Queue: 2 jobs
Job 1
Amino acid sequence: MNRHTKWILLPCLLAFASLASADIVKVATWNIEHLRAENNVGAVKRSEADYEALAVLAAELDADIVALQEVDGPAAAARVFPSSEYDFFFSDRHNVQRTGFAVRKDIEVIADDDFLALALDGSVRRGTDITVKIGDQPLRLLSVHLKSRCFDDPLDTDNRHCGKLAAQLPILEDWIDERTEEDIPFIVLGDFNRRFDVPGEGFYAEIDDADPPPLDLVRAIEGVESECLGGRFPLYIDHIILDEQAAPMMIAGSFEQIQITEADEEQFALSDHCPIAVRLNVVSAGGPTPEEEAEELFNAIRELVGETQAKVEQLHELIPALKE
């Protein structure tokens, strides 16, 4: 291939690289602290300016799928995420502290039943369970908000908070084990109210126990410290956990935390949690990888360029005859 041909192919290859990224999806989680639909009501009273400031954060997050916690349903979510761009899916719990999702309208969603067992006796939050399709690749997502106030104490600590979190553990583990046996990639994300990076912490070790095989969970934020609210709480309690099939989709270095600063906190009623997100490169089930697609397109264009060059050479051969 001569230098001229390479220059013809270069812009084409750049275009194909862009096409290969068409299935990049940003997945996030955000606890928006008692978010209500109406101004100046509830445990966290918010003015119009507060809602506008939250919407600015959501626009900066710019996620395709957001697991939500402490949001009182679709009307409340629409104060932060434009309903013209997102569809909303929430648990049926009649409480402001609902779990749910905001999902961009161009993504196909199947709403599964509430994960009711996670609520124990109804005193804690249900999980919201959905399946999205990216191309023809299904991805199961569970938004959770587990029992608070047992952030890093041993699970067998003798208080009702750790007792309830300990009771939720085998229920969540069963859900994870069932998804593993279904052989569909999944992500569990949300407010776990648990610091997994504390030495000897037992909750995460139990759900990531390699049973049943090939279960192997990956935490998007392992070893990362939070800078939310000036780093007030450096160890995360919000987590994005991917199974062994979803984890390879996660783009290295794509984790981000949208910052709510202490100055923001003084000016607006926002949230005591900052949104976190990762990007996934989702390859359609059974289809070629982006690299394979790019190679196929490259070969097709190289063949076309070769045919064009042959025609050009034929034309050059005719030029002397045309001048006679």
Job 2
Amino acid sequence: MKSVDTLYVAWRSPDTRAIYPVARLHYQQTSPHYEFVYIAGALKAQQHGFGPFIGLPELDQVYLSDELIPLFANRLMSGSRPEYQDYVARLGLDPTRAGVLDLLGRSAGLRPADKLEFFAPPQHDETTGRLTWHFLVRGIRYMPLAEQRAQRLVGGERLCWMLDRQNEFDPLAVALRTGDNYLLGFLPFYFVEDMALLVEDGQDLAIFVEKVNPRPAPLHHRILCRLEGDWATRFKPFSSPRYAPLNAAARGAEAGGS
């Protein structure tokens, strides 16, 4: 599977707990390697207290760098730490091959009591026409008996997904349950919009347990899942207006490359 080359940043409002995509980082082989831009979701987030990141003060600018921007680099575990190998293995990645964006995309770069997280688009296998997206199940601590049931999950076990329309924080929320009706948690917010579009298009999407990480792994790393399905002909991940770069030149380059 190819390495991740695009990563999005999301910000959570401390007041409403609503989550907004606010920025995008893209990696390319040629120098400068990294391009950072704010996206339209940042304007909505501003209404709820979001402000530009340190060292990246202008919402309408393109920031270029050959080094990974500190906002991202500071959330990576050092490869010299003794727990690094176990950490990468929990994410279902190969420690000898995983790139920095692979790690951040799988782990979400979460920190305790933090308002930021990172996510990558699903991957497209052009040979098979299939879509694959890995994610860590969210909200396990809110589901009765979810952690106990997680201990009995096995790799390859299929999970049922269902819309949680009465969710007060997100009416598009997708809940996950086992075949024997234990609620485990939720799909991360950032794919539910695209998931709804794929289902509308008639695509059959399936979710499988990829890996279960028992204690002492943190609870938000407990269940790694894999979403699979056919890639719709005109499907482009994260293409709603809130993901559009605020910089006009970046928008033009994106349109030209699509």
